Amino acid sequence: MKLHEALHIDLNEINREIENLVARDKDVPKKSQLAQSILELIGSGGKRLRPLMVIVGGRFGRKPAGRRTLQLSAAAEFIHAASLIHDDIIDDAELRRGGAALHVKTGVLSAVHIGNYMSARVIELLSKYSGDKNRYVHDLSSVATAQLCLGEYQQMEHAFDYDLTLEQYLEKSLNKTAMLMATCLRVGALSTDSPEEVAELLYRFGEALGMSFQIQDDLLDFTQSAEKLGKPAGSDLRHGQVTLPVLFALQDPALAPAIRKIGPGSSEEEVTYVLNLITGSDALARTAEVSQSYLDQAAAIIQQLSGYPAHTDLQTLLQYFAGRDY
Amino acid sequence: MNRQLIEDSIRQLQAEMSPVAGIQLDLSPAECERMLAVLERHDLEYDRKLHLLGIYSILTLAAERHMECVPHHPDLTRNILDGDYLYSFYLQFAVKCRELDLVAYLAPSVKKMQIRRSNGDFAEYNPAAGIDEFLLQESRQRSRTSKAI
């Protein structure tokens, strides 16, 4: 069963809402490169995890979910997709979801501004919710997006930095991935008027889930096939991203010298040799343990929300994240 | 007075921005002049002037950094991240300064600028004009309200 089915969420309704963000924008001609590129990108797949998290958050409020929750869920996907466009330029990635990356089709400068359009469209749409009590609607575009950028800065700063500490790695992962997921659950909850303390618990649940997600992502770079990943296996190491498996492997004096030799000019053979060293060590098992510890934290938060019928949806999310293999 | 305003505004923005981003606010005197002229036309408290000059500076710089995103540019990654960070910081700063009505007013023009630029039209973007219109509208509304009372 797919995640949205297990959560009893109509994914078509969310997809329509996402498409309508651009299709119903009177300032964008339907046949324009901008409209077509965005519709192709959002139509090319994606798990819609963030919109689903907004909808689940909306089930913890005192009011039923309505148009606002749906718009926030679409906004979450738009913001995520905009970040992917810019990420692909930064990573010089030519492929996205099996097709050419957007910047390959439109050129870099145009792609940067298409991503900007998506972010600006979200701000325009959500600006209609005015007043102090509605300020939270901008959390996705402000705090969460700013943190996402900070995570990227930290990643750039520490490329090929084998002295990165565990704390620095965790902070980068929190910024880059977990905070947006946490914010999705929180704004969903606030959109249906949930108590602040419930929204805060959901935020912490999302943070724990997001941390586990990022750590699993780092792990999958060592264990999954290029076909399943949609990018060459070992990409992180090749691009100088010092992820948790690398940090654990660096603690082994027998492995550290070979890992530290990997730099921007390393050959494919050198990278493959080190990838095999790390895969053959206990670093992957230790990484999986850390990921599991975040899932355990998330499970403990579900217990605190067990008075809400929607806590079972959190369990569904937890099971999905625990069993993720792509 | 203007020099003090610019210095205070930059100091305030640098204090609010994350040091992780490491962005230097290096607006040209000509760019500042455009916004200072707008601020002089309106009767505003000093703190509000600081906030509006800050918002103008962030938007101008964000748009500039993203115009420098060309392939093989040595600072391509930094330019993308700086622009992205500044656009999200713009909203954070506006929320903090309680200028969300201004954000709502500027939103369509910021969006249209992105559409134009994605389409290869790189005409200059001047947020000072939009802020000026917003302040005029605000002042007209205030005067209507006071007459009604």
TrEMBL record, chain A:
<dbReference type="GO" id="GO:0008299">
    <property type="term" value="P:isoprenoid biosynthetic process"/>
</dbReference>
<dbReference type="InterPro" id="IPR033749">
    <property type="entry name" value="Polyprenyl_synt_CS"/>
</dbReference>
<protein>
    <submittedName>
        <fullName>Heptaprenyl diphosphate synthase</fullName>
    </submittedName>
</protein>
<comment type="similarity">
    <text>Belongs to the FPP/GGPP synthase family.</text>
</comment>
<dbReference type="InterPro" id="IPR000092">
    <property type="entry name" value="Polyprenyl_synt"/>
</dbReference>
<dbReference type="GO" id="GO:0004659">
    <property type="term" value="F:prenyltransferase activity"/>
</dbReference>
<keyword id="KW-0479">Metal-binding</keyword>
<dbReference type="Pfam" id="PF00348">
    <property type="entry name" value="polyprenyl_synt"/>
</dbReference>
<keyword id="KW-0808">Transferase</keyword>
<keyword id="KW-0460">Magnesium</keyword>
<dbReference type="InterPro" id="IPR008949">
    <property type="entry name" value="Isoprenoid_synthase_dom_sf"/>
</dbReference>
<dbReference type="GO" id="GO:0046872">
    <property type="term" value="F:metal ion binding"/>
</dbReference>
TrEMBL record, chain B:
<protein>
    <submittedName>
        <fullName>Uncharacterized protein</fullName>
    </submittedName>
</protein>
